Amino acid sequence: MAHALPRLFSRRFCQPAALPRSLNSTSRTSFRTSIRNSPSPASRRGYASGNPNSSPLKVWPFVGIALAGSGAYALMVKSRVEMPPTTEQIAAPKKDTPTFSPSSVTVLFVLGGPGAGKGTQCANLVRDYKFTHLSAGDLLRAEQDREGSEFGDLIKSYIKDGKIVPMEVTVQLLENAMTEVVEKDKDHKGKFLIDGFPRKMDQALKFEETVCPSKFVLFFDCPEEEMQRRLLERGKTSGRSDDNAESIKKRFKTFVETSMPVVEYFEGQNRVVKVLATKTPDEVYKETREKLEQRLGKNF
Ligand code: AMP
Protein backbone atom coordinates (compact mmCIF):
# COMPACT_ATOMS: atom_id res chain seq x y z
CA MET A 1 0.00 0.00 0.00
CA ALA A 2 3.06 2.18 0.04
CA HIS A 3 2.00 4.07 -3.06
CA ALA A 4 -1.70 4.23 -2.30
CA LEU A 5 -2.22 7.96 -2.25
CA PRO A 6 0.40 8.90 -4.85
CA ARG A 7 -1.55 6.80 -7.33
CA LEU A 8 -4.49 9.01 -6.50
CA PHE A 9 -2.48 12.18 -6.89
CA SER A 10 -1.06 11.18 -10.21
CA ARG A 11 -4.58 10.45 -11.45
CA ARG A 12 -6.24 13.40 -9.84
CA PHE A 13 -3.73 16.21 -9.70
CA CYS A 14 -2.41 15.86 -13.18
CA GLN A 15 -5.79 16.52 -14.70
CA PRO A 16 -7.01 20.04 -15.42
CA ALA A 17 -10.22 19.28 -13.49
CA ALA A 18 -8.16 19.10 -10.29
CA LEU A 19 -6.93 22.66 -10.64
CA PRO A 20 -8.02 25.09 -7.98
CA ARG A 21 -10.62 27.47 -9.41
CA SER A 22 -8.22 30.42 -9.39
CA LEU A 23 -5.64 28.64 -11.51
CA ASN A 24 -8.30 27.39 -13.86
CA SER A 25 -9.64 30.87 -14.45
CA THR A 26 -6.14 32.27 -15.00
CA SER A 27 -5.38 29.65 -17.57
CA ARG A 28 -8.73 30.23 -19.23
CA THR A 29 -7.96 33.99 -19.44
CA SER A 30 -4.52 33.45 -20.94
CA PHE A 31 -6.03 31.01 -23.41
CA ARG A 32 -8.59 33.63 -24.45
CA THR A 33 -5.81 36.26 -24.74
CA SER A 34 -3.77 34.03 -27.00
CA ILE A 35 -6.83 33.48 -29.19
CA ARG A 36 -7.38 37.24 -29.40
CA ASN A 37 -3.73 37.78 -30.39
CA SER A 38 -3.76 35.08 -32.99
CA PRO A 39 -3.49 35.92 -36.72
CA SER A 40 -6.50 37.43 -38.45
CA PRO A 41 -9.13 35.09 -39.90
CA ALA A 42 -8.11 36.24 -43.38
CA SER A 43 -4.54 35.05 -42.99
CA ARG A 44 -5.76 31.81 -41.40
CA ARG A 45 -8.09 31.23 -44.34
CA GLY A 46 -5.28 31.95 -46.83
CA TYR A 47 -3.14 29.31 -45.19
CA ALA A 48 -5.93 26.81 -44.78
CA SER A 49 -7.02 26.97 -48.41
CA GLY A 50 -3.46 26.36 -49.54
CA ASN A 51 -3.42 29.61 -51.58
CA PRO A 52 -0.31 29.30 -53.78
CA ASN A 53 0.24 33.08 -53.52
CA SER A 54 0.39 33.12 -49.77
CA SER A 55 3.82 33.32 -48.23
CA PRO A 56 5.09 30.29 -46.25
CA LEU A 57 6.12 32.80 -43.53
CA LYS A 58 2.45 33.09 -42.56
CA VAL A 59 2.76 29.75 -40.83
CA TRP A 60 5.00 31.18 -38.11
CA PRO A 61 2.36 33.01 -36.10
CA PHE A 62 0.58 29.69 -35.68
CA VAL A 63 3.75 27.91 -34.66
CA GLY A 64 4.45 30.70 -32.14
CA ILE A 65 1.01 30.41 -30.62
CA ALA A 66 1.27 26.64 -30.42
CA LEU A 67 4.66 26.85 -28.67
CA ALA A 68 3.46 29.53 -26.26
CA GLY A 69 0.36 27.47 -25.51
CA SER A 70 2.29 24.29 -24.77
CA GLY A 71 4.77 26.23 -22.59
CA ALA A 72 1.93 27.72 -20.55
CA TYR A 73 0.29 24.31 -20.21
CA ALA A 74 3.54 22.70 -19.06
CA LEU A 75 3.98 25.43 -16.42
CA MET A 76 0.41 24.99 -15.31
CA VAL A 77 0.80 21.22 -14.86
CA LYS A 78 4.11 21.66 -13.03
CA SER A 79 2.72 24.17 -10.55
CA ARG A 80 -0.29 21.95 -9.92
CA VAL A 81 1.80 18.87 -9.14
CA GLU A 82 3.83 20.86 -6.61
CA MET A 83 0.79 22.15 -4.70
CA PRO A 84 0.11 20.33 -1.42
CA PRO A 85 -3.37 18.76 -1.54
CA THR A 86 -6.07 19.31 1.06
CA THR A 87 -8.43 16.56 2.16
CA GLU A 88 -11.21 18.20 0.14
CA GLN A 89 -9.03 18.08 -2.96
CA ILE A 90 -8.36 14.37 -2.67
CA ALA A 91 -12.04 13.60 -3.00
CA ALA A 92 -12.39 11.41 -6.05
CA PRO A 93 -13.97 13.04 -9.09
CA LYS A 94 -17.75 12.76 -9.09
CA LYS A 95 -18.83 9.51 -10.69
CA ASP A 96 -22.20 8.33 -11.89
CA THR A 97 -21.50 4.67 -11.27
CA PRO A 98 -19.38 2.84 -8.70
CA THR A 99 -15.92 1.66 -9.77
CA PHE A 100 -16.79 -1.99 -9.12
CA SER A 101 -20.01 -3.79 -9.94
CA PRO A 102 -21.47 -5.89 -7.11
CA SER A 103 -22.11 -8.62 -9.66
CA SER A 104 -18.37 -9.13 -10.11
CA VAL A 105 -17.02 -7.96 -6.75
CA THR A 106 -18.31 -9.05 -3.34
CA VAL A 107 -17.89 -6.62 -0.48
CA LEU A 108 -18.74 -7.44 3.13
CA PHE A 109 -18.31 -4.63 5.63
CA VAL A 110 -17.04 -5.87 9.00
CA LEU A 111 -17.99 -3.79 12.03
CA GLY A 112 -17.83 -4.08 15.80
CA GLY A 113 -16.42 -2.04 18.64
CA PRO A 114 -12.67 -1.76 19.14
CA GLY A 115 -11.50 -5.09 20.51
CA ALA A 116 -14.57 -7.02 19.34
CA GLY A 117 -12.31 -9.44 17.44
CA LYS A 118 -12.94 -8.32 13.86
CA GLY A 119 -9.33 -8.87 12.77
CA THR A 120 -9.17 -12.40 14.26
CA GLN A 121 -12.36 -13.52 12.54
CA CYS A 122 -11.36 -11.92 9.23
CA ALA A 123 -8.11 -13.90 9.31
CA ASN A 124 -10.15 -17.12 9.66
CA LEU A 125 -12.38 -16.18 6.73
CA VAL A 126 -9.38 -15.34 4.56
CA ARG A 127 -7.87 -18.75 5.31
CA ASP A 128 -11.05 -20.73 4.61
CA TYR A 129 -12.90 -18.73 1.96
CA LYS A 130 -10.19 -16.83 0.07
CA PHE A 131 -11.41 -13.39 0.94
CA THR A 132 -9.07 -10.43 0.66
CA HIS A 133 -8.96 -8.68 4.01
CA LEU A 134 -8.67 -4.89 3.92
CA SER A 135 -8.55 -3.24 7.32
CA ALA A 136 -9.26 0.49 7.22
CA GLY A 137 -7.17 0.92 10.38
CA ASP A 138 -4.20 -0.99 8.87
CA LEU A 139 -4.38 1.01 5.64
CA LEU A 140 -4.46 4.26 7.60
CA ARG A 141 -1.53 3.20 9.79
CA ALA A 142 0.47 2.24 6.68
CA GLU A 143 -0.30 5.61 5.09
CA GLN A 144 0.59 7.37 8.35
CA ASP A 145 3.99 5.65 8.35
CA ARG A 146 4.66 6.04 4.64
CA GLU A 147 7.60 8.32 4.06
CA GLY A 148 6.51 11.50 2.33
CA SER A 149 2.79 11.03 3.02
CA GLU A 150 1.01 14.36 3.10
CA PHE A 151 -1.54 12.92 5.50
CA GLY A 152 0.81 11.20 7.98
CA ASP A 153 0.46 13.80 10.74
CA LEU A 154 -3.24 14.26 10.23
CA ILE A 155 -3.88 10.48 10.46
CA LYS A 156 -1.60 10.18 13.50
CA SER A 157 -3.55 12.72 15.52
CA TYR A 158 -6.95 11.28 14.55
CA ILE A 159 -5.91 7.74 15.51
CA LYS A 160 -4.43 8.84 18.84
CA ASP A 161 -7.71 10.57 19.70
CA GLY A 162 -9.80 7.64 18.49
CA LYS A 163 -11.48 9.95 15.97
CA ILE A 164 -12.75 9.13 12.49
CA VAL A 165 -10.16 10.07 9.87
CA PRO A 166 -11.74 12.23 7.09
CA MET A 167 -13.56 9.95 4.71
CA GLU A 168 -11.82 11.19 1.57
CA VAL A 169 -8.59 9.64 2.79
CA THR A 170 -10.08 6.33 3.96
CA VAL A 171 -12.38 5.74 0.99
CA GLN A 172 -9.59 6.47 -1.47
CA LEU A 173 -7.13 4.18 0.33
CA LEU A 174 -9.70 1.38 0.16
CA GLU A 175 -10.47 1.96 -3.50
CA ASN A 176 -6.77 1.97 -4.36
CA ALA A 177 -6.21 -1.28 -2.45
CA MET A 178 -9.19 -2.97 -4.14
CA THR A 179 -8.05 -1.82 -7.57
CA GLU A 180 -4.60 -3.22 -6.92
CA VAL A 181 -6.02 -6.64 -6.02
CA VAL A 182 -8.45 -6.76 -8.95
CA GLU A 183 -5.82 -5.59 -11.46
CA LYS A 184 -3.30 -8.14 -10.26
CA ASP A 185 -5.60 -11.02 -11.09
CA LYS A 186 -7.99 -10.06 -13.86
CA ASP A 187 -9.97 -13.33 -13.61
CA HIS A 188 -10.13 -13.08 -9.86
CA LYS A 189 -13.62 -12.67 -8.52
CA GLY A 190 -12.89 -10.01 -5.96
CA LYS A 191 -14.14 -11.02 -2.52
CA PHE A 192 -13.38 -8.38 0.05
CA LEU A 193 -13.80 -8.15 3.81
CA ILE A 194 -13.62 -4.45 4.56
CA ASP A 195 -12.82 -4.35 8.24
CA GLY A 196 -13.49 -1.33 10.46
CA PHE A 197 -15.46 0.37 7.74
CA PRO A 198 -17.78 2.24 7.37
CA ARG A 199 -17.43 3.85 10.77
CA LYS A 200 -19.50 6.87 9.88
CA MET A 201 -22.58 7.41 7.70
CA ASP A 202 -20.83 9.65 5.18
CA GLN A 203 -18.28 6.90 4.50
CA ALA A 204 -21.00 4.31 4.00
CA LEU A 205 -22.87 6.42 1.49
CA LYS A 206 -19.75 7.60 -0.35
CA PHE A 207 -18.28 4.12 -0.65
CA GLU A 208 -21.47 2.50 -1.91
CA GLU A 209 -22.06 5.33 -4.36
CA THR A 210 -18.57 5.58 -5.81
CA VAL A 211 -16.65 2.37 -5.09
CA CYS A 212 -18.97 -0.64 -4.69
CA PRO A 213 -22.30 -1.45 -3.02
CA SER A 214 -21.72 -3.97 -0.23
CA LYS A 215 -23.71 -7.17 0.32
CA PHE A 216 -24.16 -6.54 4.04
CA VAL A 217 -22.44 -5.72 7.34
CA LEU A 218 -20.97 -8.54 9.40
CA PHE A 219 -21.34 -7.13 12.90
CA PHE A 220 -19.47 -8.49 15.92
CA ASP A 221 -21.45 -7.57 19.01
CA CYS A 222 -19.50 -7.37 22.25
CA PRO A 223 -20.03 -5.52 25.57
CA GLU A 224 -17.69 -2.66 26.40
CA GLU A 225 -16.15 -4.25 29.53
CA GLU A 226 -15.05 -7.30 27.52
CA MET A 227 -13.61 -5.17 24.71
CA GLN A 228 -11.75 -3.00 27.23
CA ARG A 229 -10.25 -6.05 28.90
CA ARG A 230 -9.04 -7.38 25.53
CA LEU A 231 -7.60 -4.06 24.38
CA LEU A 232 -5.68 -3.45 27.60
CA GLU A 233 -4.27 -6.97 27.32
CA ARG A 234 -3.32 -6.38 23.68
CA GLY A 235 -1.83 -3.00 24.60
CA LYS A 236 0.91 -4.75 26.60
CA THR A 237 2.51 -5.93 23.36
CA SER A 238 0.80 -4.26 20.37
CA GLY A 239 2.84 -1.05 20.39
CA ARG A 240 -0.26 0.78 19.13
CA SER A 241 -0.61 4.41 20.13
CA ASP A 242 -4.33 3.92 20.82
CA ASP A 243 -4.28 0.75 22.95
CA ASN A 244 -4.15 2.67 26.24
CA ALA A 245 -6.91 3.50 28.74
CA GLU A 246 -7.33 7.10 27.63
CA SER A 247 -7.52 6.39 23.88
CA ILE A 248 -9.72 3.33 24.44
CA LYS A 249 -12.28 5.49 26.24
CA LYS A 250 -12.36 7.90 23.30
CA ARG A 251 -12.64 5.05 20.79
CA PHE A 252 -15.66 3.61 22.63
CA LYS A 253 -17.33 7.00 22.62
CA THR A 254 -16.74 7.39 18.87
CA PHE A 255 -18.04 3.89 18.28
CA VAL A 256 -21.29 4.42 20.20
CA GLU A 257 -21.99 7.92 18.87
CA THR A 258 -20.78 7.63 15.28
CA SER A 259 -20.47 3.99 14.21
CA MET A 260 -23.55 2.42 15.82
CA PRO A 261 -25.86 4.64 13.71
CA VAL A 262 -24.22 3.03 10.64
CA VAL A 263 -25.08 -0.45 11.94
CA GLU A 264 -28.64 0.72 12.62
CA TYR A 265 -28.90 2.17 9.12
CA PHE A 266 -27.94 -1.16 7.53
CA GLU A 267 -30.16 -3.04 10.00
CA GLY A 268 -33.08 -0.96 8.75
CA GLN A 269 -32.36 -2.36 5.28
CA ASN A 270 -32.05 -5.94 6.57
CA ARG A 271 -28.36 -5.85 5.68
CA VAL A 272 -26.73 -6.87 8.97
CA VAL A 273 -25.48 -10.32 10.00
CA LYS A 274 -24.96 -10.12 13.75
CA VAL A 275 -22.63 -12.45 15.67
CA LEU A 276 -22.24 -12.49 19.45
CA ALA A 277 -18.51 -11.93 20.02
CA THR A 278 -18.13 -12.64 23.74
CA LYS A 279 -17.19 -16.33 23.50
CA THR A 280 -13.82 -17.86 22.57
CA PRO A 281 -12.44 -17.04 19.09
CA ASP A 282 -13.24 -20.58 17.86
CA GLU A 283 -16.81 -20.40 19.09
CA VAL A 284 -17.30 -16.98 17.55
CA TYR A 285 -15.91 -18.27 14.26
CA LYS A 286 -18.28 -21.25 14.28
CA GLU A 287 -21.25 -18.92 14.63
CA THR A 288 -19.80 -16.60 11.96
CA ARG A 289 -19.54 -19.41 9.42
CA GLU A 290 -23.02 -20.67 10.15
CA LYS A 291 -24.57 -17.25 9.77
CA LEU A 292 -22.63 -16.45 6.58
CA GLU A 293 -23.66 -19.78 5.07
CA GLN A 294 -27.29 -19.05 5.88
CA ARG A 295 -27.00 -15.75 4.10
CA LEU A 296 -24.67 -16.55 1.20
CA GLY A 297 -25.14 -20.29 0.66
CA LYS A 298 -22.73 -23.14 1.48
CA ASN A 299 -19.95 -22.22 -0.94
CA PHE A 300 -19.67 -18.51 -0.47
P1 AMP B 1 -8.77 -0.07 14.19
O1 AMP B 1 -7.45 -0.57 13.70
O2 AMP B 1 -9.92 -0.60 13.37
O3 AMP B 1 -8.97 -0.32 15.66
O4 AMP B 1 -8.79 1.52 13.96
C1 AMP B 1 -7.86 2.35 14.65
C2 AMP B 1 -8.14 3.81 14.38
O5 AMP B 1 -7.98 4.09 12.97
C3 AMP B 1 -9.54 4.30 14.71
O6 AMP B 1 -9.71 4.63 16.07
C4 AMP B 1 -9.64 5.54 13.81
O7 AMP B 1 -8.94 6.64 14.34
C5 AMP B 1 -8.92 5.07 12.56
N1 AMP B 1 -9.88 4.41 11.65
C6 AMP B 1 -10.06 3.08 11.49
N2 AMP B 1 -11.03 2.82 10.60
C7 AMP B 1 -11.48 4.03 10.19
C8 AMP B 1 -12.48 4.45 9.27
N3 AMP B 1 -13.27 3.59 8.62
N4 AMP B 1 -12.65 5.76 9.08
C9 AMP B 1 -11.90 6.65 9.72
N5 AMP B 1 -10.95 6.35 10.62
C10 AMP B 1 -10.74 5.04 10.85
TrEMBL record:
Entry coiled-coil feature ranges: none
Enzyme Commission identifier(s): 2.7.4.14
Residue spans of biased composition, Low complexity class: 24-38
Catalysis performed (reactions): UMP + ATP = UDP + ADP
Binding site for a ribonucleoside 5'-phosphate: 141, 163-165, 196-199, 203, 240, 251
Keyword rRNA processing: no
Role noted for this protein: Catalyzes the phosphorylation of pyrimidine nucleoside monophosphates at the expense of ATP. Plays an important role in de novo pyrimidine nucleotide biosynthesis. Has preference for UMP and dUMP as phosphate acceptors, but can also use CMP, dCMP and AMP.
Protein name: Uridylate kinase
